[in-house]
């Protein structure tokens, strides 16, 4: 409890609950985890339908929206396909890179801090 001037007294401790003011003035630290953008990069060889499948399978994106995102990557060179905490972003990147490699497509998936 922070004592207001009218509560302060050497002999009267009725208002003193014994806590430490520093503890009250410290911000409650409920920091959100940093977020990471997961991106797909364009290339000249990966089939469009494969990229759509990746977006559906690993990012839970519906066929229509997945097709739009794929075309954005195709035209602009890259697109953010999701934003996640570090470990989830890392897992998505690994899953996509592994899936692409198994199918011998050069598709690249990367992450960067938001
Ligand atoms: N550019 C590829 C093609 O013309 C399609 C493609 C789209 C590849 C998105 C990668 O992340 C990508 N077949």
Name the CATH superfamily classification of one domain.
Ribosomal protein L7/L12, C-terminal domain/Adaptor protein ClpS
- Helical residue percent? 40-55%
Bound molecules: L-tyrosinamide
Number of helices: 4
Note the run of SSEs as H and E: HEHHEHE
- Beta percentage is 15-25%
CATH class of one domain equals Alpha Beta
**Biggest β-sheet description:** 3 strands, antiparallel
Shape: elongated
Helix and strand content put the structural class at alpha+beta
User: How confident is the prediction overall: mean pLDDT?
Assistant: 86
Gyration radius, to the nearest Å? Answer: 26 Å
Tell me about this structure.
Belongs to the ClpS family. Binds to the N-terminal domain of the chaperone ClpA. Involved in the modulation of the specificity of the ClpAP-mediated ATP-dependent protein degradation. The chain is α+β, with helices and mostly antiparallel strands and 114 residues long. It has a domain of 79 residues: Ribosomal Protein L30, Chain: A (2-Layer Sandwich), CATH 3.30.1390. The chain contains 4 helices and 3 strands, in the order H-E-H-H-E-H-E. Strands 2-1-3 form a 3-stranded antiparallel sheet. The chain starts with 20 loop residues before the first helix and ends with a strand. The relative contact order is 0.21. The N terminus is likely disordered. The structure holds L-tyrosinamide. L-tyrosinamide binds next to strand 1, helix 2 and helix 3. The site of L-tyrosinamide has 13 residues, from strand 1, helix 2 and helix 3.
